[in-house]
Amino acid sequence: MSSQRPGRFARTLFGVACVMLALTGCADTTPTVVTGRAVSMLYNPGRVGGLPTAEGPSGPRGDVPPVTARVGNSDGGEIDRLSLFAIDDIEEFWTQHYADSLRGRFEPVSTLMSYASTDPNSPQVCGGDVYHLPNAMYCRRADTMAWDRAKFMPAARKYFGDMAINGTLAHEYGHALQAMAHIVNPLTRTLVREQQADCFAGVYLQWVAAGKSSRATLSTGDGLNHVLAGLIVIRDPVSTLDNPVSISDEHGTALDRVGAFQTGFDGGAEMCAAIDMDEIRKRRGNLPHALFDSENPQSDLTIDEHVLSTLMEQLGQIFALSRPPALATTGKCPSGHEPDPVAYCPESNTVVVDLAGLQEMSAPTDQSTLSLPQGDNTGLSAVTSRYALAVQREREVGLESAAAALRTACLTGVAQRRMAEPMRLPSGPGLTLAGGDLDEAITGLLMNGVVASDADDNTVPAGFTRILAFRSGLHGDVDGCFERFR
Q1: Range of the domain at 129
Q2: Element (H, E) at 111
Q3: 324-336 tens-digit pLDDT
Q4: 3-state SS assignment for residue 439
Q5: Share of residues in the chain with pLDDT > 70 (%)
Q6: 229 falls within a domain
Q7: pLDDT of 289 above 50
Q8: Confidence check: pLDDT of 7 > 50
Q9: 313 in the same domain as 380
């Protein structure tokens, strides 16, 4: 995250979104719909999961009460106060709504524990040592929920706001719900368990975003963006040549995790209970397995003029335009529009790139820390999105609207799907996406919105909707993007 410069965030089409790395100081704004519409309500730029897209505060509604004796080993500090506050809210929701969709009876988790992963004298949790184990967890046999108050929760809160605590614990509570409803068994794969838990977190947070919680609030713009960012951070680590990893318990990629969360946010708990490997495969669609293979080593390219030229040639083959755009790595548009770090100039049909800025956007982050997955495809997907505007120009549709922004994300997804398999170009091999590359594109969609922005660099405020549009392109085609967003 440190390599994303302040100010490199696309303007929104519905007022000003305070897109920062902490949830503070966002003023409430009233959405103003611009020209253009998305055909499906699912892709409506003015709504998220049936709720209006709006900015506003996210976090506790008022003072957070002291920690009660219910939390074992607590230091009584702010993290434990926020954690218990979140659990009380989560339990209120499921007390009211569990019976609506799930079998059995809701029972609050019997034991809550706080621990410090920095303390070698911390008591065991669920029968195991938690020294140097920054995490949050639910243990089924002991019916215990625990969290690290020293490193994990403070870091999540620092980077993703107070509601990251609610999101984390809502996910862990999802594992408790699985046990209550008997929707998993000892043979259920970890991936299914984790996807269900992500989905249950989405169900609860939709309730909060709808304004029904008496304790917490969540904006459907920046607030939800940061919750999704926190979810992405706990994706499966990706193997690299310098740091090979072996994953015995697959939790899912960023696309998997966001998709499961969206299923719950949009559809409800009954859809979470229905998640199994068949549902996950269906959601992944016809995307190559390599995109979900975290153990397949990948390396990040240094983006230079040669890489960009290869990308432009490859996009020319994918979209087959009669008037493909030119590439410029210096200067600005004739209109004065400057790349930040990319721009499309309709008047000259040129994609302009600030090469140094694009390299900074594409600098790999350290996945051993709480960093969003950034790398070469964060930048390459942004360039692809400017090419997508040239595709729209050739079809003679408007380039300055919410529909254009979402159509751009969709067309970028179409191109990325094609790039997931090796392509041979007249000049040589093309660029091929590998495991982790889609995660890097998702980061850009969520945190700066360039891939889902129109020709004026305007995006829609909800990263939730940007990702949906991108995913529709991954599983669709060019004509589908024009039909869906018009």
Answers
A1: 60-218+254-289
A2: strand 111-115
A3: 999 999 999 999 9
A4: helix
A5: 85
A6: no
A7: yes
A8: no
A9: yes
**202 and 270 co-located in one domain:** yes
Residue 261: CA count within 13 A, CB half-sphere: 29
φ, ψ of residue 127 in degrees (nearest 5): 80, 10
Give the total number of structural domains in the chain: 2
* CB atoms near residue 127 (< 10 Å): 9
**pTM of the predicted model as reported, rounded to 2 decimal places:** 0.86
Please report, for residues 29, 315, 383, 414, the alpha-carbon distance to residue 403 in angstroms, rounded to integers and kept in the order given.
21, 22, 19, 16
- pLDDT tens string 416-432: 999 999 999 999 999 99
Cα separations in angstroms, 250 against 96, 180, 264, 350: 32, 23, 20, 42
Q: Are residues 272 and 167 in the same domain?
A: yes
Residue 54 falls inside a structural domain: no
Centre a 10 Å sphere on the Cβ of residue 75 and count the other Cβ atoms it contains: 15
278 and 319 both lie in a single domain: no
Confirm if 90 and 169 have CB atoms less than 8 A apart.
yes
| Domain match, 271 and 353 both | no
Whose tokens are 């008037």? That residue is: 323
- Tokens for 295, please give them: 């153990």
Tell me the H-state helices in 219-286. 222-233, 254-267, 269-273, 277-284
Pairwise CA distance, residues 361 & 432, whole Å: 19
Which is more confident, 214 or 26?
A: 214
pLDDT band at 216 (very low <50, low <70, confident <90, very high): very high
Task: Measure the CA–CA gap between 339 and 52, rounded to whole angstroms.
Answer: 31
How many angstroms from the chain centroid is the CA of residue 13?
Answer: 20
Backbone angles phi, psi at 412, to 5 degrees: -65, -40
Q: Which residue has the higher pLDDT, 88 or 12?
A: 88
User: pLDDT exceeding 90 applies to what percent of the chain?
Assistant: 75
Question: 3-state class of 235 per DSSP?
Answer: coil
Contact 403, 452 (CB under 8 A): no
φ/ψ of residue 352, rounded to 5: -105, 135
Is residue 4 predicted with pLDDT exceeding 50?
Answer: no
Q: 100 with 136, same domain?
A: yes
Pull the structure tokens for residue 332. 């600005």
> Same structural domain for residues 319 and 387?
yes
User: Are 285 and 415 contained in the same domain?
Assistant: no
